[in-house]
Amino acid sequence: MPPIPILIGAAIIDSINPCAFGVLIFLLAYLIKTRKKKEKLLIHGLTYIFAVFLTYLLAGILLLPVIGSLGSTSVFFYGVIGVLTIIFGLLELKDVFWYGQGPSLSLLPGASKRIKMYAKHISGSLASSFFLGVFVALVELPCTGAVYLAILSLFTLHGVQANTVAWLVLYNLIFVLPLVVILFGFYSGIKAETFERWRKGNRKMMRLAIGLLLLLLGAWMLSSAL
User: Fold this and answer.
1) Would 225 be classed as within a structural domain?
2) From CA 224, how far away is CA 75, in angstroms rounded?
3) pTM of the model
């Protein structure tokens, strides 16, 4: 498995992905407008975040044996993943300077409209918030999954161990931690406009950090595969 500092550092940088922030900010802003009680905001928000955490965790657990079986046939597979990771990193760096121009790591086409539609149909049932979290986690994968894919590949490259699932749990707990911070910020009275202004103001720096991390992970995978 990758060294622990790399694993934790990757999780921290991956957790500041602007894609993940934007959806939660919209959801909480909508819930505040439609529900007066802060307790309901907190419960629905935590349910949503738990669904995101669980979906990413299960995705990692399911992908590990698939990546491992493909990689066991040839180190060429890890070289391909390494090259793709570098390409993803270059796309993130491109968006630092030319955001919105050319290909980008973004939500699946049409996902934004569907997310807004589903959010507006959230009922008093927590199941609706949970479903939205699962849906968002899946459609965000093209935007947030590049670092996760690289980490999963590094796990299999160095051999899956008995405690691998525990490390995946830690990774995904770190990944959703900023979402929890945003949720409690809303609960304490911070306005959606404040969070959104911060997200847009720091979007370039977040993409820069993610892009550099992907370049580092891709280069490491290529060197390990050789």
Assistant:
1) no
2) 9
3) 0.83
